[in-house]
Amino acid sequence: MTNAPLRYARVLSIAGSDSGGGAGIQADLKTFSALGCYGMTAITALTAQNTMGVSGIFAVPPAFLKAQIQSVVEDIGVDAVKLGMLHAPEVVEVVAWAIDHYRLPNVVLDPVMVATSGDRLIENETVQRLVNELFPRAMVITPNLDEAALLIGREIDGVDGLDRAASDLLALGAHAVLLKGGHLKGEEIVDVLAEAGSPPRRFGSARIASQNLHGTGCTLSSAIAAHLALGHALPEAVQHARAYVIGAMTAGADVKVGAGHGPLNHGFAPVPTHRFPVSAG
Question: Are the CB atoms for 28 and 39 separated by under 8 Å?
Fold first, then answer.
């Protein structure tokens, strides 16, 4: 009598590459591995990037992005998806097609629209396509304050404005919103999770003093996707993902990487890769 075959919890990142290793698909893969998942990628763009900033971007043709997704999904399979840098309307269309065609589950959309410097990363047409095509298809979107302000057309004034802003984002078609309040001033960071039909939930934590915060948003969204792939409900996935990010920030705060904004310590407490019976999930 043979043992039943096993499989991993499989998470696909559809995002841009960070050659410096701190954000993008590199951060996603490190996060998936640290949380005991099997990570895969479909790269939307290459960047020439380090801790000081981005010096160049090379877009991957949409047809080749589609080929990457097809290769991964049709052979290995997917339990959750993290969406990052989607820089053009054609790229958004490919991703929307893939979600529908393969019925991709547990889609986490990190709407990368605004750089840390405040510069816009995508044009209005792409933003509108992102809202129309992907908000309804994602389980949750994870904008920061700048991205949320761009989407709802107004600034968000303090912690008290987070609930209303999250509600406005739900009205754009999202099923759930994790609005990240890290850019607000104060010693406590407050994030708000709003789900359609449920009261908002607040998650608070002490602010961590660190120069090494590059890739924090990528890491949080990929950690949520990993925990969804492991079978957690969304609120628990958010709670576990925030705990992981806080640990990675704390463990990387005193490390010097490059001359600018360094990465988190993604591997501060890795767990063994989870294995499930093939029939599970």
Answer: yes
Look at residues 263, 239, 194, 221 and name the one whose alpha carbon lies nearest to residue 83: 221
Distance between alpha carbon 19 and the CA centroid of its chain, in Å?
Answer: 18
Residue pair 145/156 in contact (Cβ under 8 Å)? The answer is: yes
CA pair distance 242, 107, nearest whole angstrom: 18
Token pair 């590059």 is found at 214
Where would I find the H helices in 54-88? 62-75
Residue 3 three-state SS = coil
Task: Kindly report whether the global pTM for this prediction surpasses the value 0.85.
Answer: yes
pLDDT in tens, 36-76: 999 999 999 999 999 998 889 999 999 999 999 999 999 99
pLDDT per residue as tens digits for the range 158-180? 888 899 999 999 999 999 999 99
